[in-house]
Amino acid sequence: MGGFILRRILSLFPLLLAASFAFFAMLRLGRGDPAMDYLRLAQIPPSDAALALARMELGLDRALLAQYASWLADALQGDLGLSWFTRRPVTEDLLAALPATLQLAGTAMLLVLLVGLPLGIFAALHRDRWPDHATRLIAFLGVSLPNFWLGFLLVLLFSVTLGWLPSMGREGPASLILPAIATAAMSCCVMLRLMRASVLGVLGERHLAFAAARGLPRRTVLGRHVVLNAMVPPLTAIGLHLGELIGGAMVVEMVFSWPGMGRYALIAITNRDYPALQGFVMLLMLVFVLGNLLVDIAYAWLDPRIRLGGGA
């Protein structure tokens, strides 16, 4: 198990390096002039002399690999540069916004696990009966509704019409309910469908008949032989849902004025704030990769064939 974990950790570094360089190159080689955007945000008239000076200060007059190497050296020391819009260190801005995003994404993931998984099991155990049809209809509607549109509907119903919950801000547990539901809805419905299919696949295996023939209680058969074996595919999908929830929180945070990284990133996109965008994507990749690493470890713990196959 230790060797499997070490191999997985070592494989993350080339992935992070390649992804960070790809995004860095896209920003530099895309449409538009970073020096022009820098002068616009600094409210400096874009004369030829000012553009030349800005390119020199930003290092845009150097080769792309030299620019990336300089940025990477600073990033490894925790320095992601200064935001062109806020004029503050990007690292400080992101660390200030990170807790709010993790709180929202963590609560949404908790909803996915506590609602999506049990409903998927419930639907599979009542296959082709009304509970199965009802949960599949709910899943279809949940996947079809964009999270930002669902957020507007929740605000209209629970904040404007009923007045039960706050519509914006981060002032207490009550303000977390609506954005968490809007963020989790789509992932919850996807997890429901995946868990249902996984349980149905396990229910058709022969070892369940042998477990029942041994006289094991139905609850034991369902818990140890059905649910535990069916958890492997949904557990693999959790790593993808982590990135999906954080990415989906970007728009939801704007709808609910939630002071997180998504709101910070959208403001950076609107203003073409290159250092802020680079820092956000780098931190998002790090969170996504670490989440997948934890899922891989749990996957190998549930299914020993994974780590034994890697060792062979």
From TrEMBL:
Family: Belongs to the binding-protein-dependent transport system permease family.
A Pfam family reported for this protein in Swiss-Prot or TrEMBL: BPD_transp_1
Annotated protein name in UniProt: Nickel ABC transporter permease subunit NikB
Localisation per UniProt entry: Cell membrane
UniProt keyword terms in alphabetical order: Cell membrane, Membrane, Transmembrane, Transmembrane helix, Transport
Residue intervals of the ABC transmembrane type-1 domain: 98-295
CDD domains: TM_PBP2
Membrane-topology descriptor: Multi-pass membrane protein
InterPro entries hit by this protein: BPD_transp_1_N, MetI-like, MetI-like_sf
PANTHER family for this protein: DIPEPTIDE TRANSPORT SYSTEM PERMEASE PROTEIN DPPB-RELATED
